[in-house]
Each structure stands twice: as C-alpha cells, then as structure tokens.
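As a warm-up, study this chain.
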Amino acid sequence: IGLGMYPLGRHLCGYYNNDYIHEGTLVPDVVFSLKVYNNELYAGGAFETLVKKKGSQWIPVGGHNNFNIRSMDIDTMNNFLFVGGGFSAVDDSIYSQGVAIWNGFYWETFGTQCTNCQGADVHVVKNYHGCVYATLWTGSQCCEERGCLVRWDGTAWQDVPSDTLRWAIHALEVHQDTLYVGGNYYYENGVNIGTLGKWYMPQDTTCNYLMPRAFVLEDTLILQQNQAVAQFYNNNAYVDSWSWDFGDGGSSQEKDPMHTYTDTGTYTAIVTVSSQGCVKTAQRTVVVELGTSINEIENFNYAFKIFPNPTSGSVTIECNLPENTKGEICLYNAFGSKEKQIPVTGGSNSVLLNTEHLAKGVSLCGLHVNGKQVCLEKIVKE
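Now compare it with the structure written out below.
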C-alpha cells in the first residue's frame, strides 16, 4: 500500500517513493472512506457494499446495502467498525437508518438517528467518550429543525442540544478530551456561525459503553472420532476479565478460547466480561452433529497434521479424505477472517504453505468436508 492511501475518484492509489501506485478500481462509483480494521483495509463508497482488500483483490463483505457508505470509525472497546451513510438497510434486509455496525462477522442494526429523521444521510461517524456521534446531511428535515449532530448514548439516539449546529458538518475529531466539529460556513442574522465548533461531554459513567459479543468460527460442527473443535471469540480486548461457559460443563478464562465438544447436541456458550465494575454477558449457539449418513465420513481418520509448528517459515499440511470426496483447507487470521482456501480431494493430500502472509502469533487452519468443519488446529508463527 505504501505510505498512505488516497481516494481518487473511482480508484484507490497508494503513494510510495515519490510516485502513485494504482491499487485497483472499485466500480461503479467513488470511494468515500477508508479504514484499517482487524489489520485489514476496508473501503466504503457509492458502490453500496463494504469491501476489504485481500491480496490484489477487493472483496465484498456483509452483503448489499441499499445506498452509499460515507464514513467509518472504530470503537476500540468493543472492536466494532461503525459505518455511516445514506442507507436504510444493510446486508439486503437488516434495517439500520444511516448507521450500522460491522463486527467482523456480520452486520448489526443501530437504530434510527432521531425522531422524525427518516431518510437522513449520515456523512461522518465518530466515537467520543463511550458514545457514537453522527452528522446528518444539512438538507434533511431533522437537521434543519433540530440540528445536524446526534449521538448514541448506549440505548437510543439523542439530538446534541445546540442551536448553532444548523450547518453541514463534514469532519469530526477528538482532541484534548473535546469533540471538534468542522463544516460549512453558515450565516444567521448576518453572522457566520458555521465552519468550526466544539462539544464536550463527560465520559460515560453507565455500563452502556460495554457491548460484549460471543462469536464462533463455525456454528455447526461435525463430530469426528468423538471430537468437534470450536474456536470462540470475544470482541472486548480491554476488559478486566473473561469467563466462558461452553454449555457442556467446560469453561475458560481466556479471551478467545478453543474448546472441544465430545458429543452431539445443541450447546449455548456464554461469555461474561467485566470492566471497571460493569459485568455483561453474551452468548452463541453451537450445533454438533454427525456427518452425512455415510458412516465412513463420520468415523474417518482424516490424519490432519501441520508441521513444523511453531514455525518461522513454511509449513506442511497433510490430510486424508475418503475417496470421491472434495474438501478445503481454510486459513484464518487471529480475528477469525478467512485468509486463504486450498482445495483438496479424496485420498492423501500434502500442501506446502508459505506463511509469509500470516501475522506473527496464532492463526487457525481448518479442514472442511462437504462444507462442514471436521478438523481445526492452531498455527503458531514465531
């Protein structure tokens, strides 16, 4: 990518060594926002979907939105990517008027901006003191009558109480504990009250800022030789503690634990997080089932091996599949995002993998057969 990224019309370019490098074209329209989230570069614009860079390609994530994406910002406490724009629905059918959450796995709705504010276009989103702030397009009825800045207080959208922010806001930034607001000049009674403003609100002292989630890499697992391995994730990296109950009597105090189920069934995994006296929970359902009606698949020894592990270079991945069976070896980063998919076929398979593209630390490697996970192992890169 070089030293920086610049949205230039319909294209993305990087700047390196006194020259621009073409980084791809996102058709059919312009790029409005770029953000690094979970160590991946995301882009949003008038192409009505969220995309991220994978190698030399830009791939869509999370389905189709019904209008553009104008702005993105990251909530580091909850590891959410807040997305603002002119949409009223994300992922084809999830209602979310102007602001939505991409949590790394799926879209979440974030309500409406304010009362009687249907159809408003959000131009900027920003996190400040545990609240999410959004700027409304100056031509909307809500902006003209009640102001152009709203905030989410953890339970609902509230208008920022100001009689002067009736001008188009194009920029928000937090500096020295204060939210600065920049936008158009605006004359009222012959006086320019626009261009710059600032807003201060104390840090949220409620527990509304803490929004835990429980994720799992695969929510349907195949019991293989009396084992089914689930990789769980929690979105709160900066809390005081985590406590997992996997629904089968097992538990963990890790943030992102791996757990092995030994029987079929439907399990509810619950994570409890605590932060500065706030305690909240989240849950995820996992289904462990037998494979197809073919007993060979259920009891087959896939001989799934990864070596050397830990590694500082390449690894060899070996596996056996039943004859006339197709599968995939899938690589995931530390956040559960798929990095690579390698097809394998019936019989013995050996794949030499260069780990240059993997970050140092723990990644995951899974074996899928008939679209279902049958094996999962960690790869530790030194």
